[in-house]
Each structure stands twice: as structure tokens, then as C-alpha cells.
Amino acid sequence: MDCKKLIYHPTRQEAITPIGSRLIKWDLTDAPRIIDTFPLSFDAGKIPAAALIEGRDAIAIAPENTSEDTSGNQALELRRWEDGELICAIPLDHQAYDEDLSIDDEFCGHERCCAISALAASRDGRYLAALEPWGDLHLIDLTSDLQAPRIMRWRRRWPDYADAIAFDPQFQFLIWNWVDQDERFEFFRIDDAAADRLAYLGHFDGGARCHRGALAFSPFTDALVHTDYFSQSRITYRRFDRANLLARNSLLEVDSHELWNTPPATVCWHRELPLIQHPHDGLNPWQTSVAFIDKQKLLWAAGEALVLLHAEDGAIAADYHAKTVIREVAFDRDRRRIIAATIDGVIAVSLSQFDPKTTKGAR
Questions:
Q1: Could you tell me which residues come within 8 angstroms of residue 111 by beta carbon, excluding any fewer than 6 positions away?
Q2: Long-range Cβ contact pairs of 169-175 (< 8 A, separation 24 or more)
Q3: How high is the pLDDT of residue 200?
Q4: Which phi and psi angles does 250 have, rounded to 5°?
Q5: Contacts of 249 by beta carbon, 8 Å cutoff, 6+ apart
Q6: Phi-psi region for residue 46, left (φ > 0), alpha (ψ -120 to 50) or beta?
Q7: How does the average pLDDT of the chain come out, rounded?
Q8: pLDDT, position 356
């Protein structure tokens, strides 16, 4: 059972893995085991776009195309965690460049569908972000009427396939990445979500089309981590100055060569390891994942390896060979173990099972 997406619920000690047109529910109180299966009204795609909305005890999940044609819609759905029942369906309509279908839309294959490549929920459960591959971001206010929710759309039509998005835990910043020809991460400040105001603060490079990488802000400090793949699997740890970024003008409002060439987050270290060695294709891109353990350590999952790193310098503290290809991970803080979605289902690995290492810090 190839589980390419992991939705972990820490309070319930459960997980959900979307596979095709089903939601598979796992009990994690002991060894992971399947306890239920819920049907979906659509196929969730090769790597499902899904997210936990913990404050509502619900999940959000989207089909690859939320509007397949002009006559029938497939909508992003909110479903109850307990029984998988539908809470509401939220149609997301694609907005062409012009009133009619534009040449650019035709060239890029947009047609009249709204493809969703990634979902992310704010920590307080108020907002749900749905990212289109071509750069548009739909921000859904979950405190509004869910039968006709307020949806803000930020249009960024420059990207060449955007496939990951992350909110800062304080909901002051967000970041998303582009892959393929324009391999970069874009950093924004959320000035006023209700008024549809974002401030563009800059970008930094990274990403690869054959790889679905990780992108996450630290819950413990003003830092973020992202993974990508070129000749080897690579992880990069960056820090940012929150006060400086909160005071900075949007780059779209200033004419400053220095600011445009100043990344909003500074590289502390990066590490490359040949950890991805399994086959991949269009339906099975390489995936890497990260989880923050505490302020001092984070976990990097790539291929069959779980690698525990020191946040200060990227030195390897310990590792574990899972003997199966890992797709996505989460950290169970109460039981000090890793929950991992793999090509063979969901597994749990205690940190006590890791082999300690002593290595030099990364560059």
C-alpha cells in the first residue's frame, strides 16, 4: 500500500492516508493499523493535496482538478476526521488572465480547470490555502459561511509549477516554491489576509521537477528548512530576522537593487547525501520530508533513510534504515517516535531505535 501523503492527528493518535478515491484511517496508539476506510467523490491524484485542520477536527482534500470542465465541478472538500463525512464542498474556479480564455492559459494548458497542487492550514485553523501549480493562491476564510466561504485570490502567474506552501506558525509569513525551469522559493509577508494584502519580500533558489520536496517553518525559532534534489538529495536550513522582515517594504514597491538581491532568509547550512536511490517516474516522483523534533534537532527522511540532524550545524546525530521507501513523516512528541508514510503503509519508529552517529557539521 503506497501511502504518498500523511495527515497526522497528534491529539487523536491517528493518521489518514489518501489513496486514489479512498481515505485510509490508521490507529497509532500501538503499532500502526488500519481501522477504517472512507470513500471520496474523486481521485486524489498521484500525490494528494491534503491538510489537517486541527481546530475543526477535520481534513481538507482536493482532486488534482477542481473544475474539470464548464458543466460539472469537482470541489475541494472538508471532511470530518471522525467518520470521513463531508462537511462542505468548496468550488475553486480558475481565473484566466483575460475575461475570456487567454493565449497564455491555452499555452500553459490551464484551460478552464483549477488544478490544486498543495494545501496548507494556518495553525489556528482559521485559514486554508490552496495553491495552483501556475502560481495562484486561494486563501479560504474558514470562519466565514462554509456554504459560501470568503475566498481571497492572490495571482502570481510567473511560476512554472508550484507544488509546496507553508505558513509561518505566527501567520505573519508564507512561502511557496516553483520547480522545473524556475526553481525558486518565494517569501511573502501577510500584511492583511482579510484585505487581500501580501508583501513580496524576495526569493532564493532551489527545487527540481522530478522531486517533491519538503518546505516547513520551525515551530521553535525563526528558521525554515527546505529539501530539493539535483545530483544528490539536499537539505537547507535558513534563519530569518522577523523584526526586519516585518518592517521591510514590499520589493514590488521599491527600486532597490540591493534589496532585490538580498534573500529574506539566510543559509545557515546545507547537507547533501545520496539517500534517494529508488526508481521514479511521472507518477512516482522522488519525495523527501522533514519534521522538527525540538529546537536542537530535526529529522530528514529521504529514500529508505531517517536522519536525525543537529539544527545548529547540520551534523548527523543518528540515523535509521527503514528498509522501505519513505514518502512523508511526522513527529509524535508524546511518544518520541517518527510516524512515516511509506510505499508499504504507515510505520512508527522510536528515536531509541536510531543508531547514534558522530559527524562534522554541514557547510
A1: 101, 105
A2: 169/123, 169/217, 169/219, 171/122, 171/123, 171/124, 171/127, 172/242, 172/246, 173/201, 173/217, 173/240, 173/245, 174/120, 174/129, 174/198, 175/215, 175/217, 175/224
A3: 85
A4: -60, 140
A5: 199
A6: alpha
A7: 83
A8: 92
Q: Buried (b) or exposed (e) across 165-196, using 16+ Cβ within 10 A?
A: bbbbbeeebbbbbbbeebbbbbbbbbeebeee
| 80 beta partners | 58
Residues 6+ apart with CB under 8 A from 117: 49, 131, 132, 133, 161, 162, 163, 164
Look at phi and psi of residue 170 and say left if phi exceeds 0, alpha if psi is from -120 to 50, else beta: alpha
User: CB-based burial of residue 143 (10 Å sphere; 0-12 exposed, 13-18 middle, 19+ buried)?
Assistant: exposed
258 neighbors 248 (Cβ within 8 angstroms): no
Residue whose cell numbers read 522577523? 242
The model carries a pTM of 0.88
> Residue 287 is placed in which grid cell?
519525495
Maximum Cα–Cα distance across the chain = 60
Give bridge partners of residue 235 from the DSSP assignment.
227, 271
The cell for 204 is: 532564493
Amino acid sitting at position 356: P
Reading the block at residue 280, the C-alpha cell is: 521514479
How many whole angstroms separate alpha carbon 294 and alpha carbon 129?
A: 26
- Reported as a single tens digit per residue, the pLDDT across 275-295 is 766 666 665 668 889 999 999
